[in-house]
Caveolin
Amino acid sequence: MMRSMDAMETEINLRDDGDGEDDDGQQTWKTQLETVLEEEEEEDLISTQSDTKLLINERDPRQINECLKVSFEDVIAEPLSVRSGDRVWIWSHALFEVSRVWFYRIITLLLAVPVSLVTGILFAVLSFIHIWLFTPCIQIVLINTGWLQTLWSSVLDIIILPIFQSMAKCCSGISVVLTRE
């Protein structure tokens, strides 16, 4: 959404001996509104430009895989009563981290593209089925059974509701008192 407001530069004299000043002795500052408008225009440009670009640094923005943040201490822990040697613990920790990272990289190198292709096709097929089959079928059923919905709500209002209201009034007079003997 582009705004067609011309930003006007406003000069504010904030003269102080320690401030850096222009040649004429005044310092120009942009108004807060102008700064906000420029930031919104930058965001608009970024949002239209980055819709198709991959976000390399933020690969899980919705925190879908929070459960996979696993560290060595989450998997292997020695209680105080049973301990291995310090060097065994250090080497185990190092091997765990290195093997986890490198095997993940090797597996993703081999399988990430084919699995992405298969899941993309699967989601495309599911979207097609949902959009072009399920939704029209449900709409056909809802359109053709509108009279049934009206009939059912009438039955509930005329027959079922009064029965349950009268049962509630009958049961509302019952009180239970518990005494300990």
Observations:
- Residues 1-54 form one domain.
- Confidence is low (pLDDT under 50) at residues 1-7.
- Helices lie at 32-49, 72-75, 86-144, 146-172.
